[in-house]
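Any chance you'd type out a single protein's sequence alongside its tokenized fold?
>
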Amino acid sequence: MLLVLCLVLAGGSWAPALGDLVDASGPSARAGTKVSIKTSTSVAKAGRKVLVTGRVAAGKKRAVRLETKVDGVWRGLASGRTDKRGRYRLRLPTTWYRTHTLRVLAPAAGDRPAGTSRTRTVRVKPSYRPIGDRGSYTLAGESYRWNPCAPIEWRFRAGQGFGGSLKVVKRSLTEVTRATGLAFTYRGTTSTVPISEDHAGEADLVIGWATPREVPELAGGTAGFAQTKAIGPSSDRLEIAQGAVALDSTEPLTESYAAKGLVAWGQIMVHEIGHAVGLAHTDAR
């Protein structure tokens, strides 16, 4: 059986969906209040728990913020307060693959000056051995992407899909988050047919089952089809505003996230969601 995986105008480059941006030109590390930092590990698999601990000198009940440096800018990851002895305990989100350059900031409080810790690095890696290399991808457009600082709200159309398919879609989205840093927020089910019907105002992204009759692009053995719509002031400055992924409910594929030696629906879902967030087909084997 021939499986054709398609897309329409997908593409983009993105950064992790992080918290507040912090001016990187501010106080140098260790200026003002002394802040220590320690990480529970320097290398962790995605999704695993990593703790960042330390102490703020004379920092009873002091606010602290864990930050990571992205493209020269410090961005907030987690926040908390010290205990009565000035100790803090923060959890590093290991949601996406990257090497974090971290610091802990204690903002100024009353007559107590701000202070930042030394930097530490923690590498978040896959739980499996990836095939290919870091350059094995193609973007449909360098200036065509989702807003990386806001979660993508999505809905699911159950249609005639197999039982438990929503769980497989969520697993697929987790993998896409780990690879891109983009965050997805589930908003429930929908009756809207992806691709064929407009879902403006309902969700940013609709993923779901359809038949070739409902979505003609699924005809001829096409297991999945993705489409995006973008807006912007010019063709080289576009932001994806809507996305849709249609899955052919008539295709008899393995009903799981992955199955060794078989084409599973989870593979199709990751492939099509990849198109919906900005990846084109690649020539890499």
Summary: The two ends are 20 Å apart (CA to CA). DSSP finds two helices and 19 strands in the chain.
